[in-house]
Amino acid sequence: METDPTALPRSVVLALWLATVGAAPGVVVRSVQGDDEPHGVSGLPGHDDAADAADASLRDLVTAWLAGPREVCALLPAPGDLAGTPAAVSADATDAGECVMVATPTGSWAAVPEVTTFGSALEPGHLVAWQVRPVPAWSTHVAGALGSLADAERDLRTSLVTATDALDALDVARWRDDAADAIERLRSGSTDGWPVPTLDGRRARVLQLATRLLAIVDLATVDEGGAVNVWQSDQRATALREVERTARRALSAATYGSVPG
Known about the structure:
Elements: H1 10-18, H2 25-33, E1 40-42, E2 56-57, H3 58-66, E3 70-75, H4 87-96, E4 99-104, E5 107-119, E6 124-134, H5 139-146, H6 149-170, H7 172-175, H8 179-188, H9 201-221, H10 230-255, E7 257-259
Parallel strand pairs: 1-6
Antiparallel strand pairs: 1-2, 3-4, 3-7, 4-5, 5-6
């Protein structure tokens, strides 16, 4: 089964729902879990922490964090770019490639999903266990690392030119039989089926462009066969790393939300 290259990370979906006023816990859980097995949660305040198994459900986490005022953001750290992730969870969050940050009047936490894949390539399955840990107040640090949503949109449009030039120079369709189809799917694909709440125009644009840029980077870096020489390969890799970094941070910026009491 082919995975959707523009699918949103679980942490992004969860953060967008947690930042929505009046979200129903059942809808949030179904949106985040999708086709996964029921998600488990360990370390949620108010629940006994089992050593070897999740002690709470995703519905428990969602219900707890939808109640009352809160700040929410998904972070997508990568090696060498923690993107504001607190040190207490940076290693696990970088391994996972994602986490959700939540701040309430009673404290601040990070939730990191640990995903285990099972089944076959045709019928894959996923077991997801969220690890919740207390962290220091994070909002100021994260805002400084990510910038505003307007900044993210401007940076993405610049990165789109870079990514497109990299693909054109690489001419992936010449040396990969499936590349032309993959590029066309990226151009024509719709995000209407995303399991997210109703979004304002700028937030939706940033999410859409960022996910497509990440898919382009993945397509352009999956094979070095198009590199004419080492210098060109290094130049392309450097440019695409910056595009990938910009896209990850833009995705995070698009998830930030504050819900008043």
